[in-house]
Amino acid sequence: MKRFKWAALVAAMVSMVGFTSCLNNDDDGTRTTLGYFRAVGNYGAVYFQDMYDFKYQPTTSLMDSPTSELAFLYFTYNQNDITQGATSIDITLLQNPTYLKRLYVGTTLPDEKETVSLVDLSSANGGIWGVNEFLVLSPTYLLKSGTTDENLTEELANHRLEVYYDANENTNTSTLTLNLRYTISGATAPEEASDAEHWADEYTVPYTDAVYVRLSDVISKYQENNSGNDPEKIVVEYEDYNGSGSVPTMDPDKKLSRTISYDWVKVSDDQ
Question: Are 237 and 94 in contact (CB under 8 A)?
Answer without folding.
Answer: no
